[in-house]
Amino acid sequence: MGLIARAIEAEGIPTLSVTSARDITRAVWPPRAAYLDYPLGHTSGRPNEPELNLQILRDAFAAFENLRVPGSMAHLRYRWSESDRWKDKVFAPSAEAADRPESANSAGEDSSATAYEDDRTQRHPTPQYQTEQDAEAARASHDGEDCLVCAGIDY
Question: pTM for the complete prediction?
């Protein structure tokens, strides 16, 4: 997304990338970014916590207003849990995480409290809509014309 953000900025439209992948974001160097140290797919917070989601978005927008130097990255203050043990499960290969004995939790924490299961929505190669009316509206808005935003998407 950082590459796209740079192209959009080149056309005079300010952008902000909200990211949970700090190293990848640094590699593509978007004009502005807000980093949230949460698992991938959760850049606006935990599911079903609307107050937290709204506050994270507000803080991201505030960072947008304050980041003046190209390539700047704000670090949002939120934590996924009290410890970083969730990263062990997220970054470990599945078989390794499954084979790890409970006693491996050297911090003495309840592993169920820090366990992370990938609960993101499955990705599809074509757009997904909540209703058929939404699908019709999308098709009608393109009316057979190519859209630079949707390049490569088959309607």
Answer: 0.58
Long-range interactions of 83-89: CB distance < 8 A, separation 24+ = 83/107, 83/109, 83/114, 85/109, 85/111, 85/114, 86/39, 86/114, 86/115, 86/116, 89/114, 89/115, 89/116
Residue 25 near residue 17 (C-beta atoms within 8 A) = yes
Domain boundaries, the chain: 1-99, 124-155
Segment 53-99, tens digit of pLDDT: 999 999 999 988 889 888 899 999 999 988 888 887 766 655 444 44
Q: How far is CA 36 from the centre of its chain?
A: 8
Asked whether the CA dihedral 139, 144, 149, 150 is positive or negative, the reply is positive
Exposure string of 86-104, with b = 16+ CB inside 10 Å and e = fewer, is bebbeeeeeeeeeeeeeee
